[in-house]
Amino acid sequence: MIGLGTYAFFWQHSDRVDEPLSLRGAFEATRALDVDLFQICDYAPLELMTDAEVRNAAAAAKDLGLTIELGTKGIEPEHLERFLRLAERFDAGLVRSMLYSPASRPTIREAESWLRTALPAYEAAGVTLALETYEQLATADLVALVSSFGSANLGICLDPGNVVARLERPRDCVELAADLVANVHVKDFAFARQDGWVGFTYSGAPMGTGLHDYPHLLETVRPRDRGINEIVEHWLPWQGDPETTIRTEREWTRTTIDYLRSTL
């Protein structure tokens, strides 16, 4: 299933615009694009919501016919337990996380211990925990960690754009992680020369115009055959003013949805 995530609304949610988009507003914008899935990912206000606010958000998603996934950072057992409770409120079948968070940087041994504490509750609830590929951890190490559990409820959130920062090739990341993928983050990316030809900027690009070989990902991972959701997000740089930035963000979202639908 194709879905949108909060990173597709990054600037619309931000305090750099006069009227930041609410979570319900993002839900409504998602339905307006005829998309049925939304991933609330790294959305700070979620953890500050009261129980009533969480209930209202979950009810709004249900009223709009949206399936919800959640996303956070960190794998401390108490943190994962908190997000499992949130997942149950939203009837979410997947929680995406990352080994590192602003509060912790566990060793692989510590990460394994924490996951062994937290994972049984996810298995009992039928919720999948998907750990994202990213630059702080070699993809091979993440694959080894996840595969050591042999659990259907622990997988990988595949985002091959992240690993370029540790000089991994996106294609290699896709091929290493393919068998364990439980979720896909969809965005294109490219290098551009900085002014004066002094270095490069690595940033987002409209889907289908950058370096991401998405057909290779589709062929290798086969997400549609395996029921793996594809979540649209962006690395859109600030475009100089709020109006241009928001307009461009919305254009990139439509472009990505159209691209994905053209490959169905």
UniProtKB/TrEMBL annotation:
Annotated ranges, domain Xylose isomerase-like TIM barrel: 28-255
Protein's recorded name: TIM barrel protein
Keywords in alphabetical order: Carbohydrate metabolism
InterPro entries in UniProt: IolE/XylAMocC-like, Xyl_isomerase-like_sf, Xyl_isomerase-like_TIM-brl
